[in-house]
Design a protein that fits this description.
Blueprint (H helix, E strand, L loop, with lengths): L12 H6 L15 H9 L33 H11 L48 E10 L5 E2 L4 E5 L21 E5 L5 E7 L10 E7 L11 E8 L2 H8 L5 H7 L21 E5 L3 E9 L1
Parallel strand pairs: 1-9
Antiparallel strand pairs: 1-2, 1-5, 3-4, 3-6, 6-7, 8-9
Amino acid sequence: MTSPQPHPDHDRGLEFDLSTLLSRRRSFGLLFGAGTAAALAACTPGSGGGGASPSSSSGAAATATESTTAAVTPSATSTVTRALAECGVEIPEETVGPYPGDGSNGPNVLEASGVVRKDISSSFSSSTTKATGVPLTFTLTLMDNANGCSPLAGAAVYVWHCDQNGKYSLYDSGLKNENYLRGVQEADSNGQVTFTSIYPGAYSGRWPHIHFEVFESMSNTSAAGQVLAVSQIALTEAACKDVYASEGYESSARNFAKSTLADDNVFGDDGGIYQLATMSGSVQGGYTAALNVTV
């Protein structure tokens, strides 16, 4: 297959994207005791907080079906408060897997202009194909364990996951010219990044998950030795059962029926206790997911 001609800005890379962002220094100014409470009280709820609820499709009410949390989406302040309470155990280090797209085994989406974005559902540069599936918004709250669990503001997070059929852009047959379901963001003053996407599918041998890498800053996402953490988000059983019973996820339903969290080769050693997302939502209205990440 002949590859499409790249967009003129395609090879200008992440550095080109960064030139459009305001320069920000990393901030670790969150104090403890009364200072912590005051700082948290002053926080302005960010976009999404614990994951902003996606819009309902066809006007259907977003009835919560997840059992892990209430359907009310938490604010950024409450999410950071919870992250502080849970901080102390660093996120388990995991493999990037065979489809990272970070240059470690072939394709490097981190060099492509357009990778810095919140909505990762579409490809960018040479293609604008949009992945289909149940809407998913997910938020990571990054905490710096070495600095008293203060929010890791200014860090960069690269996320990627499979499509509703369990296939990965840049790698799988028919998707090598696509780069959807991949993106980078800078953590805000609360240490948070929020992405909008579609619910990942399930493929043979793995529990449904989302990959992520945490870098020290936006300016070194492609620099060797600057990765602070490599891990994965585990999605909840209740949400997976509901999503995979919906149209378009037929192959995922078959694969998921053969999977258990305890037997997964990544999450099975501890049941994913530090990587299992807090989730709420519905197939009709979309899902939200949130995870606290201590690095």
